[in-house]
Amino acid sequence: xxxxxxxxxxxxxxxxxxxxxxxxxxxxxxxxxxxxxxxxxxxxxxxxxxxxxxxxxxxxxxxxxxxxxxxxxxxxxxxxxxxxxxxxxxxxxxxxxxxxxxxxxxxxxxxxxxxxxxxxxxxxxxxxxxxxxxxxxxxxxxxxxxxxxxxxxxxxxxxxxxxxxxxxxxxxxxxxxxxxxxxxxxxxxxxxxxxxxxxxxxxxxxxxxxxxxxxxxxxxxxxxxxxxxxxxxxxxxxxxxxxxxxxxxxxxxxxxxxxxxxxxxxxxxxxxxxxxxxxxxxxxxxxxxxxxxxxxxxxxxxxxxxxxxxxxxxxxxxxxxxxxxxxxxxxxxxxxxxxxx
Length: 341
Ligand code: TYM
What we know:
Layout: E1 10-15, H1 24-37, E2 42-47, H2 49-52, H3 60-76, E3 85-88, H4 94-105, H5 108-112, H6 115-124, H7 131-146, E4 151-153, H8 159-176, E5 184-186, H9 221-229, H10 247-260, H11 264-270, H12 276-302, H13 305-334
Parallel strand pairs: 1-2, 2-3, 4-5
Helix pairs in contact: 3-12, 4-7, 4-13, 7-8, 9-12, 10-12
Ligand 1 binds next to strand 1, helix 1 and helix 7.
């Protein structure tokens, strides 16, 4: 329960409110693990609205709406506010405060080597992106270190940011004394990279040019079915897990296996002699059946904004208690005078 006296290991993770819905990659790569880990860990999860304004210009009304939609989806997916601490990043001022200190610990070249940053530079050029895109991973470092997280459940694309967190935590600890827990990434191999249904060489992503290969958690059943039935496969006919030669089919098997709880080998056996059409129809049904209750619960939360906002406020109060302790220790370690807070 976000309880500071808890002796369970800590987890912290975050998700951006930059789309009208999470997609299946977010769900399978991260959110599903968040729901499971709240049972065994002292879990802190945040909707990272500070990160969401790094892409400019942004629409304030849309950000407000998407922040609530993100929180509602996390609750709809099964986060229990009595069993984890769910909060909005901007409600906890310590994130921005620690981020500054950690920016001063980071090397310029070290930050410039972050793959996601380099991709944005390659795509838009340095004149079209803000400084926030550059410092973004260090704000993420602060998110993690403030909660003394032992583990960070994320998809493969966030591994490098967790590695940066480890490096900066170790650097800080060795310069100024043990202050931060050095976290480990918590990445489930099978679902670490869900790929785009139309381009199985690319990860499923909200910034994909076409949404035809991106299944949204809040999509209606007809749209989910359409996207899955049009999924790109390969020129063979055999249903076999082989990520190198058959990335499209393997992705469908991963999705079916994870959501149905059936081992991939059992799925392969059950589809012997059957075609891709049968697999796609079944995966569509599995996904629709799995996502429908999540969408319905999300809609219920969204219909009661007052209750949703209360859950987020209570989460922020709990998060601040932990974050403040860490921030005060870090400020003291670097030599800032104690003052009123
Ligand atoms: P974001 O919002 O882009 O994605 C949220 C989570 O979804 C995972 N993910 C995927 N996993 C598997 N397959 C995919 N195709 C796929 N696409 C996305 C991401 O790895 C992530 O776990 N920088 C982070 C948010 C963040 C954060 C943090 C995470 C901010 N502070 C602190 C952990 C700890 C991001 O942009 O995630």
